[in-house]
Specification:
Blueprint: H1 3-26, E1 36-42, H2 51-64, E2 71-77, E3 81-88, H3 91-102, H4 112-125, E4 132-138, H5 144-158, E5 162-169, H6 174-180, E6 187-190, H7 201-208, E7 211-216, E8 219-221, E9 226-233, E10 245-250, E11 253-257, E12 261-262, E13 266-271, E14 280-286, E15 299-303, H8 309-335, H9 362-369, H10 405-428, H11 432-440
Parallel strand pairs: 1-2, 1-4, 4-5, 5-6, 8-15
Antiparallel strand pairs: 2-3, 7-9, 9-13, 10-11, 10-14, 12-13, 14-15
Length: 441
Amino acid sequence: MTKETLWTVAITATFFFCLCFSTLKAETPSCHGAYDLYFVLDRSGSVSTDWDQIYDFVKNLTERFVSPNMRVSFIVFSSKAEIVLKLTGDRAKINEGLKYLNAVKPAGETYMHEGIKQATAQMKEQLKKSSSIIVALTDGKLEPYIHKLTKDEADEARTFGARVYCVGVKDFDEEQLADVADTREQVFPVKGGFQALKGIVNSILKQSCTEILTVEPSSVCVNQSFDIVLRGNGFTLGRQTEGVVCSFIVDGATNKVKPSKVKNDYVLCPAPVLYSVGQQMEVLISLNSGTSYISSTFTITASTCSDGTVVAIVFLVLFALLALALMWWFWPLCCTIVIKDPPPQRPPPPPPVRWGEKGSTEEGARLEKAKNAVVSIQEETEEPMIKKSPTSPHTYHQSESKWYTPIRGRLQALWALLRRQYDRVSLMRPTTADKGLQHQR
């Protein structure tokens, strides 16, 4: 093979590797719900050759629960039960517990009730009611008496809010596991042997994961009622939708409310009124009538709100002022007609000269006749002066001041100012004569 061919093969292989990796990553589901996850695992002698597959199943499922508030416990059972990892949310301790789990040596009988009893004992020790999931795995049939004890222990765990899921491999009895689990849908048969355990991880995750992804709205108005929408997955995974309860924690007080609508991907709940700015409310949800709750990291904060009337009035006033300013600015430019002066007219022709006698004009003849004229002036007679009677000085009566006189004076001054402005603008308007002159041009 040439060098160019090797480069082509290498680039193609890298491309397909990246494509497969991205596709695998995109198809890997996870759960963001905060749970107490109890693995109750059969370590009887019948699984001695398949313990590695059980370990891989537990490790893979644990890694799919990605909430930082998730806690895990590993319990193994045979003739008696043993807690390999006590309930913890510390990731370092969880990884250490997986190492101990991998080193377990299976032997003994199949006493599943002993393992569920250890899970219930840890639930009783918890101060805060959290949602718990028990995943019980076995590979064989239970003796009738052991089956009854196991069912009773599962019912006891459910009183503390646990949801019980069962995984059966090889020679299990599906009817027995259906009695132990909450519902038949929560039984996962693996008929292909322990090698097929990896194939049911996604199914278990889909059936067990209830998660709150968003809470709407995140901010509300004080002193106003409102509804919230919790969006996520698995809200109908409880034994019945009537058990779904919304819980709101405000200033340490808990308010439980029945939702108005429950769907698999969202829940609609009426929320309590918040009365002060900055007040916060934590949102929880329960699938078992408030026995345990699925917590979330979402809170709702109260803030001041306006109905928009004041803002609308302010915008209207600003718009009116802007319109007046634009009219004042553009009126001379758009509505004033400039009238040019007409061209100067030609001067009239001089009057014709009229000739009289002896070669002179008629005006000259009139002046010649007036040379020896005698002018007589009549003497003016003096008229006697008539004395006027002295007039009495005018008396001014000062008007009496009223309470509204200052107000009337200010209103008159304001009216005079508006009148002058109106007259100024009206002078700029084109008159009918101006429009007619413009039309003639």
